[in-house]
Design a protein that fits this description.
With 105 residues, this protein is α/β, with parallel strands linked by helices. The chain is built from three helices and three strands; from the N terminus they run H-E-H-E-H-E. Strands 1-2-3 form a three-stranded parallel sheet, with no helix packed on it. It is globular. The model has no long low-confidence stretch (mean pLDDT 77).
């Protein structure tokens, strides 16, 4: 994932703190990775950095989102909304806690 920034040096997004800085000023975060080997795309640290009014959107595949951290972020008000195209495990089990989040508050 490379965040869009005017005049950005695209190598700089990998520096420590860059993503957190971008997310703290963003109204939304859209994750579009096709796959991930670990939870690097959307971690608890990334969710905590977002505005309380922010929207998280995941159209990525595989384990790109730490679902436990996302549930915590929604429950504790770190972010306002989440829209998910896929879950960590597909098809999801009937007791997946993400399935309980049907509508916005």
């Amino acid at each position: 994932m490379i965040p869009y920034c005017r005049d950005a040096d695209f190598r700089s997004w990998r520096t420590p703190g860059y993503l957190v800085g971008v997310l703290s000023q963003s109204d939304s975060y859209r994750c579009m990775r096709r796959r991930a080997r670990r939870f690097t795309t959307c971690s608890e640290k990334a969710l905590q950095a977002m505005k309380p009014s922010a929207i998280f959107i995941n159209t990525g595949r595989g384990a790109t989102v730490n679902e436990e951290a996302l549930i915590k972020a929604l429950q504790e008000g770190w972010i306002a909304h989440a829209a998910l195209d896929v879950l960590e495990k597909e098809p999801p089990s009937h007791n997946n806690p993400m399935l309980a989040w049907r509508t916005s508050r």
